[in-house]
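[RESIDUES AND BACKBONE]
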Amino acid sequence: MSQHTEPTSTDTSTDTGSADKRSDRTKAAILRAARERFAAQGYERTTIRGVAADADIDPSMVMRYFGNKAQLFDAALAIDLRLPDLTGVAADELARVLVRHFLDRWEGDPADEALLVLLRSAVTNEHAAARMHEIFATQVAPTLAAALGPETARRRAGLVSAQLLGLGLSRYLLRLPAVTALTRDEIEDGLAPAIEAVLH
């Protein structure tokens, strides 16, 4: 199997637009392969060489674009939680809106594999755990601030994140029978009051 490399300075082509497109395709192939590797093997067992083989390129190209495995992991799992605007949401509906949103992320079509891959890796890897912390700290608190005010949101965001991540861990990764057996409505009815108690 031949491995692709990017054009060098000795190439005769001067089509910068084409070169940029090739570069974008190469990076996209690397990121796609990285997500699949991280999902299947976790952070620790994934290697630059393995990702390069899956993307059918030389390992040096992965290093050129992403530097090292940690930077590749961050780029492959650049996650926007796409949290809803809570401005104007009734106080007694906030918890249900949040639970419903995360269920949609994890059980939608397509399911949010990137968030689950990050959660799986965060259980055993400090870098992944720090990345998960950063994502939730920078996205959950500002979203809650729209409904609760910045000070209350800052105090409550950690516990809200813990409950939502606990749902993800127990239902989708550990697949605890008592949790996987629940319907979405049952999860919402059971978890929303606990989150509401934290919010108020």
Q: What stands out?
A: The two ends are 59 Å apart (CA to CA). The chain is about 70% helix and 0% strand. The mean pLDDT is 89. Residues 16-45 form the longest helix (30 residues).
